[in-house]
Structure prediction request, 671 residues.
Amino acid sequence: MTTDAEPAAPSRRDLLGLIGVMAGSSAMYAAMTELGVAQPTAFQGPAKLSAPPPGASVLILGAGVAGMVAAMELRDAGYQVQVLEYQDRPGGRNWTLYGGDTYTELGGATQHIAFDKGIYLNPGPWRIPYDHQGILHYARRLGVAMEPFTQINFNAYVHSTKAYGGKPRRYREVQADFQGHVAELLGKSAREGALDQTVTREDREILMTALKGWGALDDNYEYKAGLAASGRRGWARDPGGGLTGAPTPSEPAALADVLGSGLWRSVGAGDNYLVQHAIFQPKGGMGMIGKAMGRELGPLIQYNAKVVDIRQDGAGVTVTYVDARAGGPPRTATAQWCVCTIPLPVLGQIPMTVGAPLKAAIDHMAYHPSLKVGLQFKRRFWEEDEQIYGGITYTDMPNTQIAYPMYDYFSTGKGLLLGAYVSTPESYLEAAKSPQERIRDALYWGSKIHPQYMAEYECGAAVAWHRVPWILGCASQWTEATRAQHYANLCAIDGRIVLAGEHASYLGGWQEGAVTSATDAITRIHQRVTAS
Amino acid sequence: MARLPPPARALITALCLAAAWPSGAQPPSPTAEPRPMVEDGHYLMRGGAAVYGRLCAACHMADAKGASGAGAYPALAGDPHLASAAYAVDVVVHGRKGMPALGPLLDDDQVAAVVTYVRGHFGNDYGGMVTPEAVEAER
Prediction:
């Protein structure tokens, strides 16, 4: 059969396909952005560096994510690159603790990590949101496998010591009850005309339909025990098969109880742009990325190098360092330019020839505190007894959350919980305690939610970031006022030195901040090099 | 992160299984409730020794000798800077470089108590009480 009808107008997809074929992928991407399909992220691809003049050299201080991104791109462009790193491993805060590792904190407490094979703790970053395309780019480039990270598990708990006798509630129930009651209240107001000033008659009908769906209201726009509410919050008796399969609806909590519990604070924990699904984690631990970067750079990284002095003049930069473990005489490294990623609390203590604005920017910053405690248990009771597969329980106790392992589901063996992720102000108090005391505290708090803790606990590890010898805190913290005063100065090239790292970004504490900061810094250095 | 050779690793694993708790430490007990030390974003501990031991020791260490890695926490033991009580109060309240401002977390009594305590312990002998009024004046 033939027709002589006009060919249909090309669909958006057809058009994009055509553009892709004819003009290549970059034109395709530009066209997609124009059409609102592709959303540009802060990371616009790796730094685009042309070949530098022969002999151009850059010294990089710190083999964390920022330093190693800078090193890879500069090396690939043709620069002579050397990296000095205080630790005996690459990665910086991109770090995973495994059984067999030892970790000695400031003050001398040494932890011999006794986790079983396959079990690990990420003391630092532990998740990568989908829009952090920079760190994902490098993970992909280096063959680091990713798996899903679960921020919100509807069957995990929200918990308050002040509500429901301290008994945890399922996230699902609290969210459903909060939304249901709010929807019912708003619907009542709308029907009584209380919203007529702001909602037209037509929109009111739409609003009622939306509220019914959003709040799981029944046909009378009420949130109460029944099929609609239980379809959201779960059942007293779950639906099943056969003659015994009839479900029994559950009873929603009363509005006053929902509000008074304070548990609504935890509902929406996954709404923040930074933790919206999809989120990822490297298989086997976050440290896989740092290790892969370290392998990629190989001998370009000088480990155990403690920087003690940073000098520059019109010709270049000279950095003095000593062996951090063995001591011995100071050595120097020189280059035409320097990318410095040393954390600010450490950098502020190193003599450095830079201008007053940069020095003031470095010195103004105290890093925020954080504590993470990993607890290994003999069995995965959260899965076996409570059907919690990954995700996070939120609590008002100082441990703030319990995160369940997001790998090896249904395995019959052991498992590790992130038993505490403590921030200001309790974090300083925990840092003042011994690792054993921190673990004991985490066990106490967690046992209020999971009574199986004490019977099943085996061993743990606790990292208080103010005791970490190579950073003296967890991550940068800016306020609007300090950013206005110091941020531009911190990022500006000072002579032949530029700073990079999460502290030189608007993504404080996130690896994406390190990647985008490094990309920006080396792009600017390269402009100076090629302009001269 | 130094990885131990396999035999050491096996030994540690065995120790972990045999005695989950390091020798000398108290075994974890569900009754060992950590004393709540924070309320509404403020520390509750009272007295210079308690404020020092529970808070300042996080970085300056229990013996006030500080610690050193890639960077260092300064010792407060035998610290000549402490001759000036006003300086010490200022650093505690407003912070300095890597040291956070603790003014928002501690009240005047607590700051006065801990500065008095540190100026009179750990080999420091500067004497004299720092008053809450002096702290208030520094805020």
Remarks:
- The longest helix of chain A spans residues 171-191.
- Residues 114 and 514 of chain A are 31 Å apart (CA to CA).
